[in-house]
Amino acid sequence: MAGGSGTRFWPYSRKRRPKQFLHIIGESPMVVETCDRLGTLARDDELILILGEEHVPEAEALFSDRPVHILAEPVGKNTAPCIGLGALCASHLGSNGPVAFLPADHFIGKKAAFLEALETAAALADTTKAIVTLGIIPSGPETGYGYIQKGDAISGKLREEAYRVSSFVEKPDLDTARQYLADGGYFWNAGIFVATPDTVLTACRNYLPELYSGLMRLQPSLGTDRFPQALEEVYSALKPVSFDYGIMEKTEEPVFVIPCECGWSDVGSWASLYALRQDRVDHDHNYSEGEAMLIDCRGSSVSSRAGRLVACLGLRNCLVVDTPDALLVADIERSQEIRKIVDRLKKEGKDDLL
Amino acid sequence: MAGGSGTRFWPYSRKRRPKQFLHIIGESPMVVETCDRLGTLARDDELILILGEEHVPEAEALFSDRPVHILAEPVGKNTAPCIGLGALCASHLGSNGPVAFLPADHFIGKKAAFLEALETAAALADTTKAIVTLGIIPSGPETGYGYIQKGDAISGKLREEAYRVSSFVEKPDLDTARQYLADGGYFWNAGIFVATPDTVLTACRNYLPELYSGLMRLQPSLGTDRFPQALEEVYSALKPVSFDYGIMEKTEEPVFVIPCECGWSDVGSWASLYALRQDRVDHDHNYSEGEAMLIDCRGSSVSSRAGRLVACLGLRNCLVVDTPDALLVADIERSQEIRKIVDRLKKEGKDDLL
To answer: Quick one: which of A268, B110, B252, B349 is 20 to 30 A from B130 by CA?
Structure first.
């Protein structure tokens, strides 16, 4: 799932170059890392990238020598249509086994733990025909994520623990997040699902019938020249809805969660990226890259990406991101609010900077 | 006096383009403002600009249509040689009357008050043949300036008050500066002197004999082709010394001071420039120029001088200066320490950024 416009890493990310296509962290663009990380769990010709039409050239370039399937959404309609479309296509490609639905812009520090959880989820999804989700074991009282409350434990020959999901919970306030952490029965919802295509399509039929009928209208055109046109027609009529809200929070079927401690982050802001880079900071907790000179700075993140000297003196918790046509200087604690800058640029019609 | 290399406004000022040649504040480069401000007190052909060899082309361009005299020092030797040379040249140009020796990189907010003080100083210098200095009435306990302690008042038909100078005092610590302010008998030393050429040359003879003999060796070559070569020889042998230290603090002749309340600043740092721009800040005390977007910032100064967007979010007392090849982000309170950046650039051999 490589849709999404990504304003959170402005000015590095832009409309045409959202986070999943950037080297935000790691050696490759995040969408490539997401594919590579699966290792032997999936062959390239089993991978389906679903992304916005405007990013197809970028994706084709990144995967030019790999037989992955690239599917362009004419317009983003949130995750439920994306996952429904993915299930339909996986089914068309002949997959009856479980499919993992993965956001393409997340960081995972512990690959082995992630893959083990994914395998356990796949085994469970295969035998139970249920939707299985990964539950990230919280490392703090995070208010930026939704939570998954666990229910009864599942016994069986699974590699990892597994639980029934008791409920999906919206982003909590700080006190509630602290209670969740103390309770121990709550996981972060990473938006990672594993299920067979049939299970997903059945869930769509039951809870998002309009989406389901759209997907069914699309089915005959799969693999034909008519597909793009049909997709456009179907998508234009769809209401945007997330898979969490549209299905997971409503389903009456059992849903399972595999707890996972895999160093996961949604890398949702410059501040969370800075947090992930703590192994690369200096003794004053500064991260820097490119032509950066830091004198008496602390807790700051300085990225010179325009080949130009960025000299910093006496900064505290400051974020500096330099690009050829735009520069950001911000309190790093407020990097969640970068949308305000992007919104103002939109309002002022400065489309070239978006 | 337009010498000096000016690292304090890095990255805007550079070795080849020091502060006095920049539009730091006001409509024109500071050296032009310094000349213009004199109004009818001096004709253009009475103005002598003394500056570094490397800045002659810049000065010639700025004054291309004005008959000012441009004199290049082969190397900077502080203010005493500069003032001695100025006196020698003024004498050669036929001036027997008082000459004002003015730093070319100061800001003066109240031109009329400044000119009145200068006229009073000139009248006093003319009748007494003493060196007269302007004493800036302090507006705060400034520790960055030297002070002038006043002595007995001078009576006479002067437009303004005048005093004998009791002593010149080095930059004080904060407690001492506060005492000076409370005392009321101390002025800031702006390094502005008025005296006849003969008075200056006599003072050189008495207190800086090496400088004097150098100037005398130079005299026969004035106005000839041999002058640049002679100047080079004389200057290479001179010891750098300030007029304050070499003459004013040592002279046993009476010296006078004219108190002056003319909105003077030596504009010695980005912080003092920001202070001078308080009439142009927004309601959160931010100064900005160029393509700057400030969201929830306070007490900050943001200059976009590279035609590029500078977006700032949540900054407090922050200084941002963007230029095509270098960017500065600093705590504005620490802008006195910008020399540290310049020093490190020197050490790293990054001469193109100096």
So the answer is: B110
Q: What is the pLDDT of residues B149-158, one digit of tens each?
A: 999 999 877 7
Contact A353 B316 (CB under 8 A): no
Is ipTM > 0.90 here? Answer: no
297-316 of B, contacting A, C-beta below 8 A: 302, 304, 308-316
- Closest of B96, B101, B85, B51 to residue B215, by C-alpha: B85
Interchain pair B309, A333: CB under 8 A: no
Confidence of residue A9 (pLDDT cuts 50, 70, 90): very high
CA-to-CA distance for A42 and A207, rounded, in angstroms? Answer: 29
| CA triple B228-B232-B238, angle to 5 deg | 140
Sequence-separated (6 or more) residues with CB below 8 Å from residue A95 = A46, A197
Q: Does the reported pTM lie above 0.90? A: no
Structure tokens at B5: 């290399």
The three-class DSSP label of residue B43 is coil
The token pair that represents A256 in the structure block: 């399972």
Using pLDDT thresholds of 50, 70 and 90, give the confidence band for residue A273.
very high
pLDDT one-digit tens code per residue, A187-215 = 999 999 999 999 999 999 999 999 999 99
The answer to whether the Cα torsion of A212, A217, A223, A227 is positive or negative is negative
Cα separation, A288 vs A322, in Å, equals 11
Does the beta carbon of A293 lie under 8 angstroms from any beta carbon of chain B?
yes
Q: Do A313 and B341 touch (CB under 8 A)?
A: yes
DSSP assignment of A322-337, as one string?
A: E-SSEEEEEEGGGGGG
> CA–CA separation, B312 vs A235, rounded Å?
38
CA distance A152 to B178: 74
Mean pLDDT along residues B55-67: 95
Cβ within 8 Å, pair A338-B309: no
**Which residue of chain A has the CA closest to B320?**
A329
- Residues 6 or more apart whose CB falls under 8 angstroms from that of B349 comprise none
